[in-house]
Amino acid sequence: MTGRVLEVLKDTRVPQVVVEGLNLRKKRVQDGKGVDDFFVVTMEAPVHYSNVAVIDPITGRAVRTGFRFTAEGTRVRVGKGRASSGTVIPIPDNTEDQDFRMDMVGSKDTAPDVANKSTYEPTAGFPFRLPQLAAMFQASTRSYCAAACSSITGLSQFQNRGFAAAGLLCRR
User: Fold this and answer.
1) Whole-number Å distance between alpha carbons of 27 and 39
2) Measured distance CA(46)–CA(135) in Å, rounded
3) Where is average pLDDT lowest: 1-10, 39-48, 151-160?
4) In what order do the strands lie in the sheet containing 16-19?
5) Quick one: CA torsion of 99, 102, 108, 112, rounded to 10 degrees?
6) What's the half-sphere exposure (Cβ side, CA atoms, 13 Å) at 70?
7) pLDDT digits over 23-73, tens only?
8) 169 membership: H or E segment, kind and range
9) Which one, of 85, 86, 89, lies nearest residue 76 by Cα?
10) Taking the mean position of all CA atoms in its chain, how far away is CA 87?
11) Which residues are CB-neighbours of 121 under 8 A, at least 6 positions away?
12) Residue in 109, 56, 118 with CA at minimum distance from that of residue 87
């Protein structure tokens, strides 16, 4: 059965398409407050995208597609397989599928120039303070190491194991 794709539902878990005249469902819509005040609407339900194929314009049969390069170097879509005629199958324009909200900025939206503004300003002295920070760290670890070494007997064994392997020196 053939039909035109009306809508593409771009869900990453279950990508689906709505095809005209395919997978028809009937929906009951209330018209008023009474029990009998309703009418029935027939509408298309989505189908999984793997159940949809491209139609070859010459043969009119469903074909797989691939891409080839012309002599000018442009990339074109071509039908593949026995049912294909080998002609170029045009790719439809996606101008109507563009997100219409991209140009809209509401009263509570942050303007793009404000959102893209850099808020982090590195200080001028940061790279030059690294040696001082390293010296402060070594001094604090030396005092911790000295406190730990003073509580343990056999200082040379302690130095040879953990702290010396980590690059920390115990000094009395």
Assistant:
1) 8
2) 66
3) 151-160
4) 5-9, 16-19, 47-48
5) 150
6) 8
7) 999 998 888 788 888 889 898 999 998 898 888 889 889 899 999 999 999
8) none
9) 89
10) 34
11) none
12) 56
> Which pair of structure tokens corresponds to residue 138?
């070594």
3-state helix, strand, coil in the chain (%, to 5): 30, 25, 45
Report the distance separating Cα 67 and Cα 89, nearest Å.
Answer: 10
Best CA proximity match to 166, nearest among 150, 143, 142, 147: 142
- Six token digits for residue 107: 């009263």
**37 contacts 45 by C-beta, under 8 angstroms:** no
Beta strands in 46-89 (DSSP E): 47-48, 54-55, 62-69, 75-80
What tens digit of pLDDT does each residue of 104-151 get? 667 777 877 888 888 877 665 555 566 666 777 777 666 555 555 555
From the CB of residue 1, how many other CB atoms can be counted at a distance below 10 Å? 6
